[in-house]
Amino acid sequence: MWLAAVGVALAVGSGVALLAAPAAVPPGPTAGETALAHAEADAAVLAAAAAGLSTSGAAAAPVDGAQQAAARATRVLDLQRGLLAGSPGPVSPTTTAPAATPPADAAGVAEALDTSAQARRRDLGGVDGPTARLLASLAAGQQVQAERLHAAAGGASAPVPPPTAPPAVPSAEPSPSSVPSCNRAGGPSSAGRSSAGEPSAGSAQGSSELATTVRAEQAAVWTYTVLAARSEGAVRAGHLASAAAHASQEDAARAIADASCVRLPADAPGFALAPDAATPASLAALEDSAAQAWSQLVGAAAPQQREAAADGLAAAARRLAPLGITPEEEAFPGHTEARSAASQAPQPSPAASPGG
Question: Signal sequence: where (predicted)?
Answer without folding.
Answer: 1-19
